[in-house]
Amino acid sequence: MALTGPKKTVLQLVGVVVLMGGLAWASVPFYNWFCRVTGFGGTTGVAEQAPGEILDRVVTIRFDASKAKDMPWEFKPVEREMKVRIGETGLAFYEAYNPTDKPVAGQASYNVTPYSAGGYFQKIACFCFTEQVLQPGERVEMPVTFFVDPEIVDDPEAQYVHTITLSYTFYEIDLPEGHAALDAQAKTNTN
User: What is the pLDDT at residue 185?
Assistant: First the structure.
């Protein structure tokens, strides 16, 4: 039995709505995957270890730090720049300080510029992979271990990159469950 008239139109509209909803739901994970794979928008990659090949060519890595306007921490790179050979493992530190009288949780977002270098800037370990919680008055140095993939020299858009800027922005997030309970208990004890 074939549908005709208003029933067919309603069914087609429902199908379009379901299709559009499915595409909207899948767009965020697909976009994140696309950025990680291609380095689009300065998204860096993640690697288990550095490559075996280290080139003689040196690249300057600059370090930048910012924070969302409501983030109470102080946040800065320990050193502003370093030179590494392409393929060589680099280790840099960022410093964070919580000047408040309560625990504060944060999560860092990141990118590199120029964007053409994003797919070749690989992180082995980074404080940005997990949320960070600083206790009142706590100051920490947070490491990032990275390398620039030697394949960058074969990319027509990225082969002439001599300076890469690694930027982090810290945002305040809700305290994880265990920390939130400790903060509530500390407030109760002081009242």
Answer: 46
